[in-house]
User: Fold this.
Amino acid sequence: MKDGSMFGTVKKALNKEWYNNEANWNFTFETDKEIYTYKVFSVYQIAVETYYTKTGFENNASHLEWLNTIKSRSVKDFGVTLDENSKVITLSTCASNSNYRVAMHGVLTNVTKK
Assistant:
């Protein structure tokens, strides 16, 4: 992790050149059977916390509140609309020191069978 090979490119998402380039806004996650495509909707730096990695919600309203909170933290508005059914992935890595994290959230846009 310290050599930047694990999610090291996530830090680049805070650069204006990165987040203003629409070619960077989509990424895939592959399993043996499927390819998941996500669209970035939020990128930011934050002090170490656990809220942005939350996975369990009491109801749809609390899920939507969480989505709106992490979206509002973003350094850029990516123009993505979210609702209580949105399925997201969170990527996170250490910033330049261990007191901060760079977080990137993407919303699932497509699943393709291999």
